[in-house]
Amino acid sequence: MPTAIIADDEDLQRIELQRLLALAWPELEIVASVEDGSEALAAIAELAPSVAFLDIRMPGISGLEVARASQGRARVVFTTAYDSHAIDAFDLGAVDYLLKPVTQPRLEQALQRLRAQLKTGSAERTRSLVELDARLRPNAVQERIRWISCTAGNIIKLFPIDEILFFESDTRYTRVVTASDEGLIRMPIKDLLPSLDPDQFWQIRRGTLVCARAIARIRRDETGGFVVELREHPAQLKVGQTYAWRFRGEVLLR
């Protein structure tokens, strides 16, 4: 029986796509419905679905990065709210795309292609993901924050974004750390991510972001996992298994 995951940060979009899939392909079992790229990567690694329906832009890891990191282990259908620029880019070789709001006729076209690939055992991978990402990035420009206001007891501190080395979060608060100071903001990583430059801050765990320029080296620990060491701070930040793809094959020794 074919299986699939759905990844979209909008609850209603996930629910609607699952409803349409149940009508168009009752035999397809939805084994996971997740709201961000890190959960999608974990689901692909754990559940090995036949198909992954991935939203292009999600907080943290994008659908494009999920497809690239999964290395063809699932056939990918992208969902997107973008216009003809995105549609033209998908012609570079993605398995298929669904323009939101997804319609039943368009979904059935995509499912015909997927069924044909699954029937023949084709291992076709998503191609040209780097070019696709570059084509879409100009359409996804968001305002980036330049300063962060933090608290430390009764004191309010203002940190320039370029001085921040890493963020560590629990479910309610996020620790903001510079080379010589730190503070707290009442905001989880998930809500902070859209305001940060993804090329400047890399997510290495569900609750950890690190400034790429602050990384001194990445080493392996006794379990074989990655640990990030910083230039100007003694913290040693563990890399979650879901995010280890970023460092495999290019361990940095600076």
From TrEMBL:
Domain Response regulatory span(s) in chain numbering: 3-115
GO MF terms held by the record: DNA binding
Presence of the UniProt keyword DNA-binding in the record: yes
Pfam families: LytTR (PF04397), Response_reg (PF00072)
Domain of life of the source: Bacteria
Entries under SUPFAM superfamilies matching the protein: CheY-like (SSF52172)
Modified residues (4-aspartylphosphate): D55
Key words, A-Z: DNA-binding, Phosphoprotein
Keyword Cytoplasm recorded: no
Record-annotated HTH LytTR-type domain positions: 148-224
PANTHER family assigned: REGULATOR OF RPOS, RESPONSE REGULATOR RECEIVER
Protein name: LytTR family DNA-binding domain-containing protein
Organism: Massilia phyllostachyos
Lineage, top ranks: Bacteria, Pseudomonadati, Pseudomonadota, Betaproteobacteria, Burkholderiales
